[in-house]
Amino acid sequence: MIDTHCHLYADAFDLDRKEVEKAAKEIGIEHILLPNIDIDSIEALMSLRNSDSNFYRAMMGLHPCSVKSNDFKEQLSTIKKQLFRNPTGYCAVGEIGLDLYWDKSSLDIQQQAFKEQIEWAKELNLPIAVHVREAFEPLFEILDDFHDTKLKGVFHCFSGTLEQAHKALAYSGFYLGIGGVLTFKNAGLDKFIPQLPLDRIILETDSPYLAPSPFRGKRNEPSYLKYVLNKMAELFEMEEDYLRKKTSENARILFSL
Fold first, then answer.
1. How far apart are CA 6 and CA 208, in angstroms?
2. Please, are residues 39 and 68 in contact by the beta-carbon 8 Å criterion?
3. Contact at 8 Å (CB) between 24 and 33?
């Protein structure tokens, strides 16, 4: 399996990162993809990536919740230099997008940051890892303008509606990242995910966040991806081994692994 979105460099793993890595490898995870947050996370992310650059793959981008009016342009400048210095060292531009859950007043500058980073991805022929929370409509408006044959990516940690899933997948080259939310009661994702094309789905944990049942509310980790896979097999009524292979194949195609 491939955990396509995981913050294993975060402080939450400082005491047992090697043990968490070992547990991930023991259940068959062969790659962990590390999305960046802001300029303060770059050092920890790159240190972990460099510890095993085959197992860990890095993304580079500015998270929408880190887009602040006082410094977002400076942050973008620093992150762009990091990315363009060695673009082949990254598997995606991410995580980027829009988030109106915490702060609706910053929509304008979030849009500016998102658009600029999309341009980077197109210039470097890299996919984007899209974060979207309570902002599907303004995000779709941007993708409607920017999408072309050069743009591809994933709606990370997808938790939208069936209609929003269809809209997301209408952009050729885009996938849905499915994680622990799939196992949550009343989340709704389990009601329609079997209606979606399997060749456009990849798996993720978003560790240390959004741990699947039966660990909901606790720290998430890559080895818990097996619970997402198990739930997916139940819903699709397919063998876990087939789903494991198919979702990993999808991830390899999107991220050129």
1. 7
2. no
3. no
Structure tokens at 90: 């990254």
pLDDT (0 to 100) of residue 82: 97
pTM, entire model: 0.97
Given a contact cutoff of 8 angstroms between Cβ atoms, the answer to whether 195 and 183 are in contact is: no
Q: How many CB atoms lie within 10 A of CB 163?
A: 10
* DSSP three-state, residue 154: strand
Continuous segment of H or E residues that includes residue 150: none
d(CA 204, CA 180): 8
Number of domains in the chain: 1
DSSP code at position 129: E
Q: Is the pLDDT of residue 186 over 90?
A: no
Question: What is the domain range of residue 14?
Answer: 2-255
Residue in this structure with the two tokens 């194949």, named with its chain if needed: 249
Q: Which residue has the higher pLDDT, 20 or 102?
A: 20
Q: At what angle do helices 136-146 and 162-169 cross, to 10 degrees?
A: 20
CATH number at residue 51: 3.20.20.140
pLDDT in tens, 113-170: 999 999 999 999 999 999 999 999 999 999 999 999 999 999 999 999 999 999 999 9
